[in-house]
Structure formats: C-alpha cells, structure tokens
Design goal:
Nucleotidyltransferase, domain 5; alpha/beta; 14 helices; two-stranded antiparallel sheet; Aminopeptidase
C-alpha cells in the first residue's frame, strides 16, 4: 500500500514539473516573439499581456506550492514527513529557478531589443512627465485687471498694472527648422520668493538655447546676454531679460520670450523649461552642493554684497569652494567683478552660469544609484516645461540611439556685432546691448548649431529673407 502511494506521488510530482516546464516554454516563446530583429511593432501590441503572463505564471506556481503544503500537512503520515519535505524543497527550488530564468529573459529582452528599450524609455518619459511641472498647472500671475506689482527696473515701459494694456501681438517669424536639430529654450526667473531685494521683477537673467544635433552627435548650450536690446511689435525698446515679465502680465511669458528670440536669431524653438531662482537653490541643495573655484576678488565681493541673500553664507574664500544653493545662486548673479579667466560684465555672468550648470551635471552623475531616483524626482518638481510626454520620450531616444557624446557652449550676440549704448541709451534703454549686424549672429548659429559651412549658412540665411 505504501509503495503504491509513493508511485502515485512520484507520478503527480513529475506532472507538476511538466506543467512548470510548459509555463517556462510559454514565457520563452512570448519573449522570442518580441525579439524581432530590431523591429518596432506599431504600438507594441501585447506588452501588457506579456508581463501580465509572467506575473500570473509565477503567482500560480507559488499558490500551488502553498495548496500542496496545506494538503500534505493534513494527509501525511508520521513516516512520510521526510519525503514530503524533500518534495516541497524540490518544488520551491524549481519555482525560484523559474523566477531567475524569467528575470534573465526579461532583462535580455529589455536591454537587447529595440522594443524592450522603447518600453524602458517610455517608462522613464512617463516618470519625468508625472513629476515635472507643466505651465498650465503653474500660473505665475493672476490675470486680474488692476492688480499692481512692482515695476520692472529693466523695462522702461513697465509702468502698467496687470491687464491694463494688451500684450503686443507677435507676428510669425520665418525661422529655420531641420529634422536633425532640436532647439529648446532654458531660462531662470528672478521671481519674488527669495527676499525683498529680488521680489517682483520676474527678470530672466539666465537664458540659454539648448540644441541637440543628431548629425554631429552633440549638445550645445548657447547663452544669450540678458541686456540685449530688443523691440516688440509695439515698437518700444526693452532689454531681453524683461520680455518674459511683459508677457506674463497677459499669461504668455514663455511664449513672448520664445517668439522674441526666434525673431532675432531665426531658429525654431520647440519648447522651453525654466526654474525660479529659489527653486534653483533647492536643486543645488538636493544634490548636496557643488564645487566651484573662484578668485580672491570674487570671494570678497560675494562676502560683502547681498547677492548671497543669507549673511550666514557669506564666508567664501579664494580657490575651490563647496557652495550650497544660496551661495551658488549668488555666484551666478555676479557681473561687476571679473570671473576666473578674466571675463567681466554679462560675459562673466553667463560664464559663471555655465560653470554652475556643468558642476550640477557632474554632481548629478556622481549620485549613488540608490539616491538617484529620489533626487531626480525632487529636482523635477522644481522645473516647469511645456514639453509633452511624447517629446520627452523622443529626446530620450535621440540620446540613446544617436550616441550623443559631446557638449559645447557659445554666447550671443557675438563679438563685433553689437555695441553697449551706455548711460546715453538707445530708444530710452540705457546700457542696452544693441545689435548692429543681426545677420552675423544668425549665420554664426547656423554654422555652429546646424553644422553649415560659411557658404551654406549665407545661403540658408538668404532663403529666410526671400
């Protein structure tokens, strides 16, 4: 009797192993079906079914073990305890083996195939989109007529209340648009949540064009000097850093700033992202600070002025300093003393800003893998953009599939193409940087951002003016 029972148990156990083998073979077939010679099935049909099948298979195996353990605890005779324990151990090992196999196959699928990589990129894009701020959710000014805010000191025409005058209309501009180049506007807003000295102006003292070129496999950051003289369609002169504030009065700050830059530099801007100065401080602090080297003159200047708004942080020294967010923002604002290398005025300011961004980039890359998820999520919460989740995913794919490997930096307007109007001013704007040769700046961008030869840049520029 006991021998027959043992034969029946062995037969049932073998049947269980066959079911497990069938489950693993089924999973392997489904994964093989997805590994289609780097093709990208339209919409990736069956992605959810694939992973649901993996989870369901493992769940059933674990549940079966649990049920068999309960049955065995009821039916087993004292002499059969050892045999039952051996049987359960074997099945546990088989299930864990299948889990390891599924993980290996899934990892190979995700890392080694285009559909798998796209699944990962889609997840990352949605993670970014879920945690970043969008302009519609981040209205900076209430559009209620008659509400007074402090006048913008960099805009001589800024003497009106919100809604008192309409936003100047912006005519469409002929701009260059190429499939292999994507341009985005990045800027920082000096908004009033720091201290009284910096409240209310809404100046964009940091403005950069971030360009991705898939032909040259490079990223380029082009700083724009904040004091550049511009005119809107109302004919009034302003400094570029005041344009956002003018547009924000009618709820179109980023749009007016993008349109103005497109007008003067003739390149298409596909979207924007910005942070407020107070948020910039928080991002640096979230990363644990950044390492910046400064001169003795810079240290003295920062320690005695209110560019570092917290007096307790005015303790910088010559050489390398480990700066917190408040110190880094103060450093980015300086323009009245020369920076390391001798750059002064707005040239020095934009150079400092690029140095801090580079330091942030390096610090972010060095984050512990266990901290990276949390740090990324917190940093994204301080950034506002109009990019869609599809645009974010497209950018991720460009970096992954095109092997973007280099970064360069430039500055606009270029030398010998403008003059400083000084105290005398130009059209009512003092110390504005007035461009005298707009074509030179456009051709410079075409050569550096689009990879044109000088002859090609001239041809493309002339085509826009036809």
């Amino acid at each position: 009797m006991r021998e027959n029972e043992w034969e029946r148990e062995t037969s049932e156990e073998g049947a269980g192993d066959g079911i497990l083998d069938e489950e693993i073979d089924s999973i392997r077939i489904k994964l093989d079906d997805y590994n289609l010679a780097e093709e990208e099935p339209d919409g990736f049909p069956g992605e959810d079914e694939l992973f649901a099948s993996l989870n369901d298979s493992l769940r059933r195996q674990v549940e079966e073990i649990g049920e068999e353990d309960r049955d065995a605890s009821i039916d087993e005779a004292p002499g059969e305890v050892t045999r039952e324990k051996m049987s359960r151990k074997k099945k546990v090992l088989l299930v864990f083996g299948s889990i390891v196999l599924v993980l290996i196959l899934t990892t190979a699928f995700l890392a080694g195939t285009r559909p798998g990589q796209k699944l990962v990129l889609d997840f990352i894009a949605r993670f970014i989109d879920d945690n970043i701020n969008h302009e519609d959710d981040n209205i900076l000014l209430t559009l209620t007529p008659g509400i007074d805010i402090p006048d913008n000191p960099d805009d001589p025409n800024d003497d009106d209340d919100i809604g008192a005058t309409p936003l100047p209309t912006t005519e469409p501009h002929l701009v260059r648009n190429e499939d292999y180049v994507k341009n985005f506007l990045i800027f920082g807003i000096d908004q009033g949540d720091m201290d009284a000295a910096h409240s209310g102006s809404l100046n964009t003292d940091t403005m950069m064009i971030a360009t991705i070129n898939t032909k040259t496999k490079s990223v380029m950051l082009t700083s724009i000097l904040r004091d550049m003289y511009v005119e809107l369609e109302d004919g009034k002169g302003r400094k570029l850093n005041s344009v956002y504030a003018r547009g924000a009065r009618s709820g179109q700050g980023p749009e007016l700033l993008m349109s103005t830059i497109e007008k003067y530099f003739r390149i298409d801007l596909e979207g924007y992202a910005y942070v407020k100065l107070a948020s910039f401080e928080k991002i640096v602090d979230l990363l644990g600070g950044v390492s910046i080297k400064i001169t003795a003159e810079e240290a003295r200047y920062l320690n005695k002025t209110n560019y570092i708004t917290n007096p307790a942080n005015r303790n910088l020294k010559e050489g390398v300093n480990w700066m917190n967010g408040n110190q880094a923002v103060g450093y980015c604002r300086v323009r009245k003393v020369a920076t390391l290398g001798g750059a002064t005025n707005d040239y020095g300011r934009t150079l400092r800003q690029r140095r801090v961004l580079q330091a942030i980039f390096e610090k972010y890359k060095s984050q512990n893998v266990f901290n990276l998820f949390s740090v990324t999520k917190n940093c994204l919460s301080h950034v506002t953009t109009n990019l869609t989740v599809d645009q974010i995913e497209e950018l991720l794919e460009i970096f992954v599939y095109n092997g973007i490997s280099t970064m360069e930096s430039f500055r606009l307007p270029i030398n010998d193409s403008f003059y400083d109007s000084g105290i005398k001013g130009h059209n009512g704007v003092t110390y504005g940087l007035v461009i005298t040769d707009p074509g030179a700046n456009v051709r410079y961008l075409f050569e550096n951002l689009y990879g044109d030869t000088p002859e090609e840049a001239v041809q493309k520029y002339n085509e826009l003016d036809k």
